[in-house]
Design a protein that fits this description.
The longest helix is centred in the N-terminal third of the chain and has 45 residues. The strands form two sheets. A six-stranded antiparallel sheet has the order 1-2-11-10-7-8. A five-stranded antiparallel sheet has the order 3-4-5-6-9, covered by helices on one side. With about 375 residues, the chain is of the alpha+beta class. The radius of gyration is 29 Å and the shape is elongated. Helix 2 runs antiparallel to helix 3 and helix 2 packs parallel to helix 4. It starts with 16 loop residues before the first helix and ends with a strand. The chain contains ten helices and eleven strands.
């Protein structure tokens, strides 16, 4: 998770429907912007006194094309700017004047520079697309999408990184069908950057192995503890307490109307019933996060919770509950979801993300992992 401090970005209000429509129209007609600038410059130049120049419009057209359009459009905008300026200079008789030639030379120079800028931006975009593809591949490798159905369970997951291009950060989730039932893990690594991603990779690797071998959730938690402590010890210069992980383990037996939870310092899951009732499933015995077991006696206990047909368990990281609106108020998922019914877990998570985006005005300040598991009614 991202380390929090007071130096956060200022609140940015979400665009209204009217502004959104204008932005969409603008994006669909980007090719008209240089044309508009050239036309406006020509009209202004023609209808103003001879010594007034619209050179700024002529230079703005190719530079705008360089930033928004293709190389061909940038070249055409530059040629159009030079032709328009030359035509007006001829009309007013200034083309042979030193000032007129200097103006035309300036427009031609900016047009040539616009082509260079366009190429530089193109190469930057190519590199950025490559980074995005790598980040997407890493996300698929580290946090693969769980299968949508596991027996009687329907599963959905979402991940939202605080760093838009990173795709993955310090939050994690995993779902695995085992001989003991379907087992899940949702966790949050303290810290950020590559160190957090390394801890995520270690935690998921240990979970996938332990979920198949350990007969209890407490056994899986103990394996996670040992694996993360070993990883923390390998990182030179870092104390063990610098890499703790909050996490909650869930187990859905193949038969029966209940589930089991084991919470190690993580936000309590929400249990949503078909009638819209929402329950926050707090652990019966609080426990320290993983990697911090040596600081206190509490190792956690396994809680058994009723899980009737049609119920949904929502597991999440604190990026959800610590999302703030413009007044600084935190998002309350239990209150937001109370009284609402969702046909499947995908609809629940889509609605939840849309609701959080509306609450925050579109800002993302922390990683967020969401996992929803619904028991079928059939």
């Amino acid at each position: 998770m991202v380390v929090r401090n007071e130096d956060r970005e200022p609140y940015v209000e979400a665009p209204s429907a009217g502004r959104t429509a204008v932005m969409r129209w603008f994006l669909r007609h980007l090719q008209l912007v240089p044309v508009f600038l050239l036309a406006a410059g020509a009209v202004l130049d023609f209808h103003t006194p001879p010594h007034f120049s619209a050179e700024a419009f002529y230079t703005a057209a190719p530079m705008t094309a360089a930033a928004l359009l293709s190389l061909r459009a940038t070249i055409l905008a530059g040629l159009g700017a030079c032709a328009t300026d030359a035509a007006l200079l001829v009309h007013f008789g200034f083309l042979e004047d030193s000032g007129g030639r200097s103006e035309l030379a300036a427009v031609a120079t900016v047009s040539a520079f616009a082509v260079v800028v366009n190429r530089l931006m193109h190469y930057r975009d190519v590199r950025l697309r490559s980074v995005r593809e790598v980040a997407r591949a890493v996300q698929c490798a580290v946090l693969p999408q769980p299968p949508p159905e596991l027996g009687a369970l329907r599963v959905a997951a979402r991940y939202q990184s605080a760093v838009r291009e990173a795709q993955i950060g310090g939050d994690l989730y995993a779902v695995q069908d085992t001989p003991y039932g379907v087992r899940c893990l949702v966790g949050d690594v303290r810290g950020k950057g590559m160190e957090a991603v390394k801890a995520v990779d270690v935690a998921l690797g240990v979970f996938r192995e332990a979920a198949e071998e350990e007969d209890t959730l407490a056994g899986i938690a103990a394996r996670l503890e040992r694996g993360l402590v070993r990883e923390a010890a390998r990182r030179a210069g870092l104390e063990q307490t610098e890499g703790f992980v909050t996490g909650v383990l869930a187990e859905f037996p193949h038969s029966g109307d209940e589930l089991r939870l084991f919470n190690r310092g993580h936000p309590a899951p929400l249990l949503l019933r078909r009638d819209g009732h929402v329950r926050c499933v707090e652990p019966s015995e609080p426990a320290l996060p993983l990697c911090l077991a040596g600081l206190g006696p509490g190792q956690g206990v396994t809680d058994t919770v009723p899980f009737p047909p049609g119920a949904t368990l929502l597991l999440y990281t604190d990026g959800l509950t610590e999302a703030k609106d413009r007044t600084g108020a935190f998002y309350d998922p239990a209150a937001a979801l109370a009284g609402r019914a969702f046909p499947d877990p995908d609809d629940l998570l889509d609605a939840l993300l849309a609701d959080v985006g509306h609450h925050t005005g579109g800002r993302t300040t922390d990683d967020m992992a969401l996992l929803a598991i619904t028991r079928g009614t059939g």
